[in-house]
Amino acid sequence: MGRFIILVLALAGLWLLLSGYFDNALLLMLGAASIAVTVWLAARARVMDGDSVPTGLMPRIFAYWWWLTGEIGKANIIVIRQALAVEPKLSPKMFTVPLPPKTTVGQATFANSITLTPGTVSVDLREDGILVHGLTEGLCDVAAITDMGERVARCEGSGQ
Amino acid sequence: MEAVGQFWADIEILRNILSWGFILAGGIAVVSGAIGIVRFPDFYTRLHAAGVTDTGGAELILIGMLLQAPTWIVAVKIFFIGAFLFFTSPVATHAIAHAAWMVGFKPLEGPELRYKEDGE
Description:
The structure holds two protein chains of two kinds.
Chain A: H1 2-19, H2 25-44, H3 60-84, E1 93-98, H4 104-116, E2 120-125, E3 129-134, H5 142-156
Antiparallel strand pairs in A: 1-3, 2-3
Chain B: H1 6-10, H2 12-39, H3 43-66, H4 72-102, E1 108-109, E2 114-115
Antiparallel strand pairs in B: 1-2
Helix pairs in contact in B: 2-3, 3-4
């Protein structure tokens, strides 16, 4: 039920902010109708679960994203310096990092965080870890990436 | 026009300076990413250079545009573009990397940048 309310509120917020109509009764009614149809279809298709309405990671995931932005900035500078260096010191390699998050949403968030950070790309998701391709020796820091995964795992709380 | 609010209009010089800085930094990131795509040695390393364009470049330019928004509804839309880019670009990058890995495309490895032999 909580998930249902959050989906309705999120869709209503998206509709209002993208359309910008706040005082046209006909359009507001049509917007409400479209939200009702969307929620009904989501319920009917049984996709309103922890994967498509990932309330399990909220609210702490917002603080995590803020932290991730800083990490992305730092990694951007490292990769830009390599791209512009006269002699790029690349040392690419494939390595496996552990997978601390337990829910599928947490694992997807972790893998996406690795890919979003320039210099590391998640290549394959396995039972026991994520196969990552790193650009330089400094970026292939398993401890730092595992720490990122543990931050995601802490957002999961009790899990779904 | 009341749409922007007095405060937003008052800080116009500050907004212009900040957005100038953000758009310039974003432009540098995009160009560096493009240079990296040309200079890096193989497919997987080039993905990282493309990642700079995806994250730093796109988001910094969007922040710069956000500061130039004429009405708050435009600002909200630019924010949504940034947020959706934040969630979709890693999925695309992963899809490309995963496809290459699955068909057996080997990466260059180590500081000598050579392909690993079997059994190493």
